[in-house]
Amino acid sequence: MTDTTEPYFDPEWGYATLGIRAAEPRTENMEHSASVSLTSSHVYRSAAEAAAVFSGQQPGYIYARFSNPTVEAFERRLAAMEGGEACIATASGMVAIQTLCLALLKAGDHILASRGLFGASINLFNNILSRFGLETTYVDPTDPAAWKAAVRPNTKLFFVETPSNPLMELADIRALADIAHAHGALLAVDNCFLTPVLSQPLKLGADFVIHSGTKYIDGQGRCIGGAIVGDAQRVGKDIYSYMRTAGPCLSPFNAWVFLKGLETLALRVRAHSDSALKLAQWLKAQPRVKRVFYPGLPEHPQHELARRQLASPGRGASAAVGFGGIVSFEVEGGREAAWKLVDSTRMLSITANLGDTRSTITHPATTTHARVTPEAREQAGITESLLRISVGLEDIEDIIRDLERGLA
Ligand SMILES: *Cc1c(COP(=O)(O)O)cnc(C)c1O
């Protein structure tokens, strides 16, 4: 991009404005809304220009495995929202986690991860990265002292998902960052459930933020993708070099969908959060519901931490506190009753996807966490009576009516 086409940017902008205005990829055609740059490579006016761009002496695009205008715009806009210096977009959220580990760790290193991770993340650590000499052990996300006790001399990475999936337990990001740094380890936070609208882990001391763009960033259940956000050296140089060579890159088309998604992220995440709180309050009052897991409820064990941590320190209306769009709950009657409730819905989508405009309902023990061993599931508190709802943007009254039938 040239100076004449670069749109105005103000680092003081609030999250809604950043999502709409930061890093608009404007070409000499002066598009108002970002166009998608679907080209695998770029050309040069001369051999000298090609050499200058390849060596980095002159800015310019080379090859879409590691440089594409639309992907770069998505990376810059997400970095601005997370308060990071650099961002690398990846083919999926899982690839973001895999890339982080393969780019920065080596055989013999140890990872400390929070219990209650996304199911595929557990499989990645236990069944794939373990084959390359990376060992992972799991710790209660709510107990910083347990992390301190579990650190080994070779611990290089803390990997935390907060809130946890599907039990919505919170980790104290600042406390874990301090413990990691005191032992020479780095902290990565999977910020998929909250998005930068509700949580900015880098500002609380985390070194990396991981995203699955597939969820709230897209927001309409269309594209798979992910991202790593962090500092200029580790993400901007080290992970970028890995991307350039190993190529786990995001498609420009998906980057364009995500760029559009970021424009409405602040608005959507607040609406998802408002409805989720209403649903959690309604579920709590149902006699056949044993327990509701939602950080916005005052009885949630970490409600106070949630109030402190889940507020944008930023400006503007988007700085409001919200508790995210995911609500989990246990019903009386084990798997049979849980499945019956799922099967009695007519509008809610029976799918494990989340962060969509459409509300979804899933039985974690037999879907997202089915490949996890029963012992590990038990330990993580994922019982047979547990259900998880990703609260969509339909009218909350309709979501409640759809669940009422099965709880009658
Ligand atoms: C979905 C998800 C992922 C993985 O992202 P994909 O884009 O599906 O690969 C990682 N972490 C969390 C918390 C998720 O919900």
Describe the structure.
By secondary structure, this protein is an alpha/beta fold. The chain folds into two domains: 15-263, 3-Layer(aba) Sandwich (Aspartate Aminotransferase, domain 2), CATH 3.40.640; 265-407, Aspartate Aminotransferase, domain 1 (Alpha-Beta Complex). It is 38% helix and 14% strand. It is built from 15 helices and twelve strands. The strands form two sheets. Strands 1-7-6-5-4-2-3 form a seven-stranded mixed sheet, with helices on both faces. A five-stranded mixed sheet has the order 8-9-12-11-10. Helix 1 (15-21) runs antiparallel to helix 3 (69-82), helix 1 runs antiparallel to helix 10 and helix 3 (69-82) runs parallel beside helix 10. The model has no long low-confidence stretch (mean pLDDT 93). The site of pyridoxal-5'-phosphate (PLP) has 16 residues, from helix 4 and helix 5.
